[in-house]
Amino acid sequence: MQDLVAVDFVTPMRAFGITGTRASCVASSSPTMGTEMGTEPMTLRLVVSDDGGATWRASGSRPPVAGQNGPMNSTVECTTGNRCFLAANGTLVATTSAGQRWSTVRLGHPVVTLARIGSVIYAGTSGDWRAWRDSGSADAFVPGAPLPTPSNGTYWTFTVGPGPMDVVAQPNAGDSPSSLMLSSSDGAMTWRSIPNPCIGQGPPGQVAALDSGQLAMICIGGAAAGSEDKSFFVSSAARNSWVRRAALRSLDGPNPSHIPSEDYGALAAPFLDEVLMATTDRLAISTDGGGHWSDTTGSASFDGGGFLATFHFFGHAGVVFVPRVGLWHSVDGHSWAPA
Known about the structure:
The protein is mostly beta strands. Helices cover 0% and strands 46% of the residues. It is built from no helices and 32 strands.
């Protein structure tokens, strides 16, 4: 069985993806441990689409890396042409020939995250915590400044934009938010602390960079009665202060902004007047900078998997992908249809 577990659109029509084929169950035995059951790592394959994700075809040879069991552990980032980076199970591999030839990118430590804007790709490593910026050659990366060691069970994630040297770093959501949120304007070579608006409101959600240089951020909220369960913030252009645009203080209380009450998955803000939020089950949009929200039209229904959603935008037109659930297109951000 083949699953499409990650995609990256380089134009509205051309996309690269990763498929994974895995055995559902394997058995191993030894004289001391007896028989143990488990699941084999996924065998990954690069695929390509030239019709917006409606059809896919295998491209090149199998990359020299195996994925873990689950779509969260494999990702692909590509630039125009046939140049792609694939990260899985801590290993980063690269191709400049759409998978015909692969090379291993050796950064000295496991690669745990990738991020891209335009033709510039960032790789985040664990152990030696830092962001590495793609130099433009096949597999050479420039190391950024060291980052603090995050708390156990978390790792640094990166949001890039609006320019290729503008980077925000924050630990991925855990049981409680980290007070640390960092911004760089020189491609991760130096960092400065910026306020985290989610402090005191449970784990932080995703960050999106606006074309104005501002940041948008969703706060997941806490579970206690009367707590501020859901919030949406927009930063100043200098990223040193935040304004709350919407909040849901109680799941049973009034919700004048109609901000979604479900768990949040992904955030996209190509423009301040077009902010999209994927929840576990649906896709919501705000056209006034996050003050008011409504459901998008069309058939974007995520079947509980929206927390893994990824967005790809080209102006107001976009694509949203949910692993093993589906892929949807929009020409205006408001109405979405399956590929």
